[in-house]
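ARCHIVE CARD
Drawer: 12
Card no.: 0347
Subject: one protein chain, sequence and derived structure
Cross-reference: see card 0346
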Amino acid sequence: MDGVTVDETATQQHPQEPGTQQPAPKRRGMRGNAKSMIISMLVVVLGVIGWNALIPRVNKIDREGVDVAAIARETNISLKWQVSYPQPAPKGWIPANVRVIRFQNQPPTWQAGYDLPDSKYIAVQQTAEPTEMWVKHQTNYAKPQGTVQVDGAEWTKLYRSSNKQSSLVRKDPLNGLSTIVTGRGEWSELQKFASLLKPAKTS
């Protein structure tokens, strides 16, 4: 038509030369995001390490244990017994289970159990009314392993291999009470425990 001028260069599309492609658009921010993530993780890790450094370790905490003397004194008064416990207890022996146990069909039993180093445990068990079943119950049906003398007193050694429980059963009563030393420890430790048993004070 007259008066209309068409610019063919504006509408005509030029084909790309074979073998050439437009470059892919660059992804922005990926390197920055990864760097920020790594820095954040390092900050968190360093914070956790610093926090753990401030928390005292369990093996560094001194634990006094229960007041075995007071509980033994109360037991003597209430039951009219003369119970014993290791005196003085060596360093690292911590009284953990100190009480009078009352099970059905079992006589009342004085127990003074101590935690020893290296996760060992030894307790003294005493009663005024011993039975054969009581001995089996306290020693966990362990098998006899001979006898041993501790400060002139004869003790029978018993051992149960399934749970590594060693026991010493005193032949004669100690201050009128049948006495057993039992737990998980070396025979030398059980004998030392037995040698330290002394009656609790009543006042």
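Annotation on reverse: Residues 1-17, 50-62 have pLDDT under 50 and may be disordered. The radius of gyration is 39 Å.
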